[in-house]
Amino acid sequence: MGKTRPYIDTLVAQQPVQLRVRFDSSIVPRMKEQVSTSRALLPKLTDRLPLGRSGLEVSPICLGITTSETVPAAFDAGINFFFVSNDLHWRYYEPLMRGIDNLLANGVRRDDIVVAGVSYLAEPLFGYLQFNEMLEAMPRLERVDVLVSGASTAEDFMARWKQIDKARTSARWGCSAIGASFHDRYAGRMAIASDMLDMAYIRYNPGHTGAQDDLFPHIRNDRDCLVFNFKSTFYHLSDQELTDMGVGEEFHRPHITDAYRFALGRPEIDGALVALQQPTQVSELADALARGPLDDEDINYMVDLAKLARGEVVIEES
């Protein structure tokens, strides 16, 4: 990619600057070489995936926190899947809701979009499934296609699942699919493996690679449950942050879209929740996905940068 990539124990910078990344084994054991992706191509914004057994089809990119002017650009580019929080961070999702309502007001057919509503309330409040506020904010929406249990854990997942499963059976709020987001990979593994959900949101990025060991090996190819990634860009580092960490300009600076390529390169991940803030970022993402998965060098490089950001490794002049 035209610039040197610093790796743990293997960094050789362009002359005359010579750096190496030293691993501090007293902090955390050295990870083995990252598992190579077996996906030859990344999904396109215009692709459609079956949403569990619901009969709905969704784009592999799901738009979350955004701006109202980005919504029509995303839809025109092929994104038909939208993620709205019904309670936590409500105000951050107001531009998305305005954008969705404007789409419908401007003639987009309701059946041409799929909207997921997520609730982060704990039981017993979660069980009331108060998604009416979403419908009031978007009067043309008419229904919530996917009810999502947000931030599910092993302790509360089953109780919350019973509520949304009952809602799916009775088509409450017009829903035909259910899902959950997981920070707890054990709970996610159980839900995905047993096809209890139509979709699951999991976290995998250069700073959180544990899914390689305790989640991905358990994901069946013949499952119905879609797996979408969230927090893909959580360990994207700005130019200033990299400079402050001692990574010189002679080294490659990953673009924020590389974070999505990192996650979607995994064949176990079907799609990603994204937070695009400008219409131009829609085309940037489409172009990045068209370039295909990252190579092993870039995957390892981004993992090393995340370790550097966490203080698990240091860069030293040789």
Task: Please outline what is shown here.
With 318 residues, this protein is α/β, with parallel strands linked by helices.
Number of helices: 10
General shape: globular
Taking the sheet with the most strands, its summary is: 8 strands, parallel, barrel
What percent of residues are in strands?
15-25%
Q: Low-confidence segments, ≥5 residues, pLDDT <50? A: 5-36
Provide the spatial order of strands within the biggest beta sheet.
4-5-6-7-8-9-10-11
> How many beta-strand runs?
12
Q: At CATH's second level, what is the architecture? A: Alpha-Beta Barrel
Q: What is the CATH topology assignment?
A: TIM Barrel
Into which percent range does the helicity of residues fall? 25-40%
Radius of gyration: 21 Å
User: What is the mean predicted local confidence, pLDDT?
Assistant: 87
CATH class: Alpha Beta
How many structurally independent domains? Answer: 1
Secondary-structure content class: alpha/beta
How many angstroms separate the termini?
Answer: 24 Å
Within CATH, the superfamily carries the name NADP-dependent oxidoreductase domain
Provide the succession of SSEs. EEEEHEHEHEHEHEHEHHEHHE
Oligomer type: single chain
